[in-house]
Design brief:
6-stranded mixed β-sheet; globular; about 230 residues; alpha/beta; 6 helices
Length: about 230
């Protein structure tokens, strides 16, 4: 049996342990109060903590799933996923961020299935793709998506549309207190929004999606970090 990957994991953790400063976990050993809960796509190219330059434990609560979806289904009802609600209700977190990414495979799969293709399978994947399909359908029917554009353009517009949709679901849920700020980002490692690979572009701030309006609310040095692909 080939244990190469296992050996790499063990070696990587050894480097992690050796590199930790003294008292690294001291402030969080008794509990956590993360500043933000970020729901990201469970894509290996999207580094949930590293993208924010976070080095300290206990700062970012990081649930993830296929397509950075904020919901799950329970007895036929669509509810906010517990991975987001836990830090909000039990750890004092008052900021939530939905983080999509360019070239998202989940959005691509939902787009393919919606436009006549097959579901990707297996069943555990199809569940999450199926939950994305109504978002894709709404996007394609809206005037925000260039439905006649090439696939790359449409898919990346749908990525942003999905981020907005997920953020709206959070803001409208009775389970999310009104004083929780909800932000939407698209992590760009393909140069779709600009030429700064790894930039998390801010596309939604508490429901505001106009880049110029968002730019007025953030420091001037970050003005270029808010853009939109939507019409």
């Amino acid at each position: 049996m080939d244990y190469d990957v296992l050996n790499e994991l063990l070696a990587g953790n050894e480097r992690h342990v050796d590199g930790l400063p003294d008292a690294y976990f001291e402030a969080v050993q008794a509990g956590q109060e993360p500043d933000v809960v970020t729901v990201c796509c469970s894509d290996s190219r999207v580094p949930q903590e590293r993208m924010w330059g976070v080095d300290d434990p206990g700062t970012v609560f990081t649930p993830s799933n296929i397509g950075n979806q904020v919901w799950d289904e329970d007895d036929g009802d669509r509810i906010v996923d517990g991975g987001l609600l836990y830090p909000i209700h039990h750890a004092g977190t008052d900021v939530a961020a939905v983080v999509g990414h360019t070239g998202c495979g989940a959005v691509t799969a939902a787009y393919r299935a919606t436009t006549g293709g097959d579901m990707p399978g297996p069943r555990g994947v199809d569940k999450w793709v199926e939950m994305l399909r109504p978002v894709v359908e709404d996007g394609l029917e809206s005037d925000l998506i260039d439905a006649n554009g090439d696939d790359e353009t449409v898919i990346n517009q749908l990525v942003e549309y999905n981020v907005d949709h997920q953020a709206t679901f959070l803001r409208e849920s009775d389970d999310v207190p009104d004083d929780v700020d909800v932000y939407g980002f698209v992590y760009d490692f393909q140069g779709i929004y600009g030429d700064e690979l790894g930039r998390a572009y801010l596309v939604n701030v508490n429901g505001e999606t106009n880049p110029e309006a968002i730019a007025e609310e953030i420091p001037d040095e970050y003005a270029d970090a808010t853009r939109s692909l939507l019409h």
